[in-house]
Amino acid sequence: MPRFAANLSMMYNEHAFLDRFAAASRDGFNAVEFLFPYEFRAGELKSRLDAHGLTQALFNAPPGDWSGGERGLASLPGREDEFRRSIDTALEYARVLGNRKLHVMAGLISGDRAGETQRKTQRDVYLNNLAYAARAAQAEQITVVIEPINTRDMPGYFLNRQDDAQAICAEVGAPNLKVQFDCYHCQIVEGDLAMKLKRDMAGIGHIQVAGVPERHEPDIGELNYPYLFDLIDALGYDGYIGCEYRPRAGTSAGLGWLKPYLDAPR
């Protein structure tokens, strides 16, 4: 039976961020994820998790200057020291929050030097940085995940395809480096989700869902999520499925899709 984590960066935006933990718990979630925790003290977030019986499933390492348009550091030449400091910061938070999954964002391809040479340079930096992150996380028994992101929502992002992500993980060769399989992004870029899940499940460390194409609830749009949830179960995935979508209206009002899974015997 699938286990779901509410993504508090996208869901429950009708509440202040620290109040979203309680709202998710009231709606039956027992886990949460979000993009970044760094505006808050780790202990403050941990107290919200504990007060509402929630597990922290995932968050992202610092991405650089997010408000300035940066989308990760891992593939950016010349930013290696900053990247290593960002991993140290992320692991400090993970120790407090107790999560065992950390998403490391690749970053954008440099627009002024785009091309095969630039991609190769960034790929070399990316592999070296991922190897560092995986080594540092291994000591904490944490899995690092990398996520292919679609080019419509995030133009210029370095990593877009599942096969590329799996190849990068294989080349780095760290047992705790895996792929974050976001069904929304994969459908937009590639499609054929069921076959990719079957092909790659051994290398998948986290799964996320949203309706396609508008990124609303997973019962809206072109994907048959009940079928995919059954398949994910059958393939033996036992992690959380992150609900990284933007509710059409109020978050709680749009959770009819979740009720059968909350009510099902376990």
Automatic annotation (TrEMBL):
EC number(s) reported in the record: 5.3.1.22
Pfam families: AP_endonuc_2
UniProt key word Transport: no
GO terms for biological process, alphabetical: glyoxylate metabolic process
Amino-acid biosynthesis listed as a keyword: no
Leader sequence residues: none
GO terms, molecular function: hydroxypyruvate isomerase activity
InterPro entries: HPT_OtnI_isomerases, HyI-like, Sugar_Epim/Isomerase, Xyl_isomerase-like_sf, Xyl_isomerase-like_TIM-brl
Domain (Xylose isomerase-like TIM barrel) ranges: 21-260
SUPFAM superfamilies reported for this sequence: Xylose isomerase-like (SSF51658)
Key words, A-Z: Isomerase, Pyruvate
Superkingdom, taxonomy of origin: Bacteria
Active site: 147, 244
Family statement drawn from the similarity comment of this UniProt entry: Belongs to the hyi family.
Protein's UniProt name: Hydroxypyruvate isomerase
Organism: Paraburkholderia atlantica
